[in-house]
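Budget justification note: compute hours in this period were largely spent on complex prediction jobs such as the one shown. Inputs:
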Amino acid sequence: MKGKLPVFDFEPCVSCSVCVLACPFSCITLSVNGVDALKNLYPKVDASGCTGCGICEKACPMGAIRMDGNA
Amino acid sequence: MVSCMGSILEVDLTSGEIKKTKVPDEIYYNVLSGKGLGAWYCLKNIPAGADPLGPDNILGITSGALTGTGALFCGRWTVVGKSPLTGGWGDSNCGGMFAPAIKQCGVDAIFFRGVSEKPVYLYMDNRTCELRDASAYWGLDATEAEKRLTEDSQKGKKLPRVAVIGQAGENRSCIAGICNDGGRIAARSGLGGVMGSKRLKAVVLAGSLPIRSAQPERVKELSSVMGRKIKRMLVPPVSGAMLPMVGRMMGLPVSFPMDGAMSGMLLKKWGTPMNQALAVVSGDAPLKNWSGGPKDVPGANKEFNPDKILAMETAKYHCYSCPMGCGGMLDTGKVPGMEYDETHKPEYETMNQFGPLLVNNSLDSIFIINELLNRAGMDTISAGATVAFAIECFEVGILTKADTDGLELTWGNTQAIIALVKKMIAREGFGDVLADGSRIAARRIGKGSERLAMQVGGSELPAHDSKNDGHLVTHYAAEPAPGKHTVAMDLMYNAMSLCDICSWAPPAKLRNKKENLEPTETVALATAANACYTMMMDGAGGCYYGEMMGVHTFKLIEYLNAAAGWGRSGDDYMEIGKRVQTMRQLFNVKQGIDPASVKLPGRALGYPSLRSGPLKGVKAPYAKEQVSLHWKVMGWDGETGVPAPETVEALGINALLEMEVGA
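Corresponding output:
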């Protein structure tokens, strides 16, 4: 059963890719541009592959992920 | 060690045999992973006198002890082996996303020996590990080969990570590196040539195994604190045109402690190209093949203003676990003469080696050369220094157009420089003479040309003048893989606060730069401490720019204790660094390198001295004594550089070398 999807808070996010590596289904990419003036890329989830397991939320050192999105 | 996978992969390319073997935990305890694990394995297994480009050499691809644990700034992988460039120890590291992929396949390192009959690549995931035919990829540049291998190997959504050689490696160039992530490169020491000599085109990794740590919440807490600090760091509200003024301040004859956050702020905005605007006026940048001052490169500060590069940046590039993002992707669609629409932001080293070092005042040409060399997999530091050597040979009449395939190799001749780079990549005509670096080129050319080759022990000098940063007088010559700026510098030492974690590291103090050019115990302690710390950090998979943030921001000791479940002190970890450094030096001795014969060229020491600029008249007359004192602090013989038997014994190296990997 699919749970909630990750929601990313770009304010604390440091674009470190720890969530990208942690995702066991390779559903997260750093691909959101235009968030800050420096042009850092931020994470995005591919909802079709995400099972809502929450591993990314647990792995993120910055507290930037909440499992709160609609599947 | 909990954060390591506890195994390595041993691949015999001659027989095709592949073994996954366990590594005794005591090895990790004593040398960590990464460069340390590689030094242990290569010292033990590469026979004395091995041909660097023959079957007896071993090519190791290693990850770091902290890589994949969630520790920030720990995404570097390191390639190790016997260098064809120097004949001694070789290593180089690189970022991108490749380092954790090694551990996700269940191993900490992959060691290749032998030579394959035909081109192959290694494919590995959680279940499969095999050598595959690489004929379809042989001949492709590294970026194209990576793209095709990724597409051809991908199963489901998991993106395979690829380390690959380009044409330079295939052509067994002694200045070839190994590439990943579309243009990142483990460039130095010529180990791409070793990979090519083994007919190993690539390593493709698609594992997804978890990487653990003993105290994951503590690791996360450390990352959170550092990440917040870097996120909140101010981005300097100044234009790139103002950087030369900062450079003038840095060019003053004083050395002083500073917060590592300073460099972090600049890197976060511009990446390493910001240093070009500082370095010409500060004296950091070698100009005109180490013979010129700022007046010899008029217009360089304007042409190489890093704001021009920022304007082309489409996105920042972060390596795995990097909170800073010093890299960037550039839109080069409008660069005249550029074949490709995109390139990784050139690093400072590339900019200076192909810019002011050659009196080349064309930023556009830097983009072209950067992409050409990244795709070919050739070290821009060595390639730039070798082109500088060739130009000066031409200027003084050692070479003529009859030698250079008609190229007018004069200072700043941009089109001739680009044409020559292409020839070096293809080993075509005169390019073949230069394709193995400046020392070998000088032997081929003769006529006294060796005096114009700015190399040490065979390795070309990078873009930092040792007369400006006196610690480099020692490091360039005393480092077992000579001619590297990434081991240590006075600039780094001033930012690290190493004395706060190491009982024998002297505090950084305000002083005249000339004091760094004198043979004092204080300088020797600082150079030894910095080198040991970096060796230890390389075992963790750490990044140089994390290191530069200082021990109070990048808390490597706390990270390692949390990841491994240890409670070891800073001094304990410094001993690990000393052990690894000593193993690397023992490797050189085993391979017949005479450390005392590795000497800097005269210009790097001020002979003859520069006639203008911030380094006008500066000399480093005590290089031999500085190196000798450094060796003594390391516990090596002060005359020969050979590690003393009592040091080897105290570090337990012989006992470690007797240990075997077990199936």
